User: What shape does this take?
Amino acid sequence: MSRKRKRYSPLDQLRRSLRLRRWGTLCALVALVVGAAAAVTTGLSGCQSTPERVETSGTRVNGVNGEPVVRVRVRRAVPSVEVAAAGGLRIGPGGPEAPAAQQRIMPGPLRISHDGKQFVLAPAHGEPLGWAVPSLLISPAQGPTLTVDGQAYPASIALHPANTSSIPPFAIDAINHVPMEQYLPGVLSKELYAAWEPQTYRAQAITARSYAIHGLGGGRARKFDLESTQASQAYLGAGAHQKAIDATRSTRGVVLTAGDDVLQAYYSSCSGGVGQDATAIFPRQKDQPPLRGKMQGDWGKQSPYFRWAIAVPRQLLSRRMSEWGKANGNAISRLKLILEVRTTATNPIGRPTQLTVFDQDGAAFALSAEHFRFACNYAGPSAPGPTPSALPPLDSKHMVRSSHVAVTVTQNDVRINGAGYGHGVGLCQYGAQAMAKAGHSAEAILQFYYPGAELRQAY
Assistant: This one.
């Protein structure tokens, strides 16, 4: 009589396949970090780009009932989109209560816009059709994907008016409604290099899933949950490569938790060695031990931005910071010529949380470290519209990559020495890759970057 093989959940499989003598691994990591910390006492760090945070109430891990659908905004306030699918398009009013009888099968491509009163569906040949509904939900009549402006996306696309006023120009948002496990490969393929290690991909899959599930905690009142850019998580859509698909499948439903909450597991490109507290970046963020800054050593040293230095013309930087202040209602709008920049607050391990800018008239303007970075990188209005910027474009040689900086003002320039790329909270992608290459498992990588967090099966 044959014995039945025990079936393991993805979390159990992950633990079994990635087990690396946990205590030995963690002791080795602690030793490495302690040794590296001594060499980074003056280091500057951070991570990739700071999310455009939408505050949510969070998600309890036991409140996740099956695989969720994520709503990802893939076009923001555009005049129109072109939608197509090989077997035609199934189009109907959006919303859970829309009757199926109102759906139509239409050939593509369709150029869809909004005139302030109704959606306008213009085929390649023929007369445009007006449809006065609050939103449209579009899915492929056959097959798994459809395209928006030539880019393939799985599942379906919802279109919403981007503004509800009666004043042109009118614009629309396109939002991909996609099951979580179809969404994640498109994130991994965009966030990581294809040649990176499988364990890096598995760690990123769990991190990205946790971040996305936490983002659902705001409920369905909003029309979208996440952006498709680094404002949330970069997202390719369809067309993910096999390594990303495998990492998603092998960790299906596994998330990081802090207590009973799914962790909003922030991550970015390079930390430069010194992590930031999430509460220093997002003032309404719940203080959780896994999201506090820690010394991370030199794991991320392969990043081109592990250490960096720039010199920005003093007049230009003063203008950028003043214009950022005007656009954001900040007192630094009154800034004259920069005289000095000081670090005036740090987190417990020495990473700046506040910088104060002094001008030649004796005025002082205190900014959070991240707002200081934003002000330095301000290039003009980002909202759609014809408003021209009075500022020259921001070029890479003048970009402040991180808010962990030391600033010196000279007669003509502001010289900034920094490290890392972005906000510095949570996992550092370059560091995760170095750890994976050194033989550490995805589980060990996550324990290192989110100390105290647990891996749990959400669905």
Residues 22-38 form the longest helix (17 residues). The radius of gyration is 24 Å.
